[in-house]
Design brief:
By secondary structure, the chain is α+β, with helices and mostly antiparallel strands. The protein is built from 3 helices and 11 strands. The strands form 2 sheets. A 6-stranded antiparallel sheet has the order 2-1-11-10-7-8. The protein has a 5-stranded mixed sheet with strand order 4-3-5-6-9, with no helix packed on it. Strand 10 and strand 11 form a beta hairpin.
């Protein structure tokens, strides 16, 4: 099976400022590094030009490309490691980029299933049908709000924080 036939996977890229972007792993090998010809370019001088790559071999694997500071999965330095949904990928420095690997269909599928079954994301067990009508509506909003992070185009900036009104 090739990467095109595999489950769709993505990396959530968290930059040093905390901003997040989602990048689909559209082909393999998926190159990660500082150099501009990589599939994912990370602008940090401490990251190697060709730091790591994601390959598909009956599962998604990350391979370190002999980088100076290493590739870490969930805090453990690796040379080659099978990636599982929600694995955290780091590049040797706590204040650098972080990646979160996920199967693109996992999160959306889980949220949609919870909407269909009436389960709460927060409590994990609230039955919407047995709740008061106003409570059901509020609970559905709580379930749907995480979906918006997937539907907002990556080029669209996050909504600005409301500014407090000046006292007169």
């Amino acid at each position: 099976m090739t990467a095109a036939q595999a489950r769709p996977a993505a990396l959530v890229v968290i930059n040093p400022s905390g901003n997040r972007n989602k990048v689909l792993i559209s082909e393999t090998p998926f190159q990660i590094g500082r150099q501009s010809d990589n599939h994912l370019t990370l602008r940090d001088n401490r990251i190697s030009r060709a730091h790591a790559r994601v390959i598909y071999d009956n599962g998604y694997f990350i391979e370190d490309l002999e980088s100076r500071h290493g590739t870490f999965i969930n805090g453990e330095r690796v040379q080659r490691q099978l990636l599982r949904s929600s694995d955290r990928v780091e590049f040797g420095f706590a204040d650098s980029y972080k990646l979160l690997f996920l199967f693109d269909d996992d999160e959306i599928g889980r949220l949609l299933q919870q909407i269909q079954t009436g389960q709460s994301l927060v409590t994990g067990g609230t039955n919407l049908e047995s709740s008061a009508p106003w409570s059901r509506s509020r609970e559905r909003c709580r379930i749907l709000s995480p979906l918006t992070k997937f539907w907002r185009p990556l080029w669209m900036p996050p909504s600005p924080s409301p500014t407090p009104l000046a006292a007169t």
